[in-house]
Design a protein that fits this description.
44% helix; single chain; 434 Repressor (Amino-terminal Domain); elongated; two-stranded antiparallel ribbon
C-alpha cells in the first residue's frame, strides 16, 4: 500500500459544473427530472411501450430517458411527461452570485428540489 495522502475534493453539488459544462444547471435540472421519470417507470413496472400508451409520448423517447440521454429534451417537456404520468412538479429556484473561484464562463447557480 502507498502512504501517499489522499486529497479530498468537495464537489459543488452539480457534477456537470464540477466537470466545467457551460450549461451545467440545465443539465442538472434535466437529470433530476429524468431520474423522476425513471423512478416512476420502475415503481409502476412500466415498459417504454406501456409508458407510450399511457402518455402518448413515443416509446423511443422513454428509451432515451432510461439511457439518461436528455439532450433532445427541454426542461418543460420533461415536466410535461411527469404530468402525463400523473405527477405534479413543484419547481423552486434560488439564484446566487458566482463564487470567485468559479470559471468566468459558468452560469449563475440555479438550485432545484424535486
Amino acid at each position: 500500500m502507498m502512504d501517499d495522502p489522499i486529497e479530498i475534493v468537495r464537489g459543488s453539488g452539480n457534477v456537470f459544473r464540477d466537470f466545467g459544462y457551460d450549461d451545467a444547471d440545465v443539465r442538472q435540472t434535466k437529470a433530476l427530472l429524468g431520474t423522476q421519470i425513471m423512478k416512476i417507470m420502475t415503481e409502476e413496472n412500466l415498459s417504454t411501450r406501456q409508458a407510450e400508451e399511457r402518455t402518448g409520448i413515443s416509446h423511443s423517447d422513454f428509451s432515451r430517458i432510461r439511457q439518461a440521454k436528455f439532450s433532445r429534451f427541454t426542461i418543460d417537456r420533461l415536466i410535461k411527461i411527469l404530468g402525463l404520468l400523473g405527477l405534479d412538479v413543484e419547481v423552486s429556484i434560488a439564484v446566487h452570485r458566482r463564487r470567485k473561484n468559479m470559471p468566468t464562463g459558468m452560469p449563475t447557480v440555479i438550485e432545484g428540489r424535486i
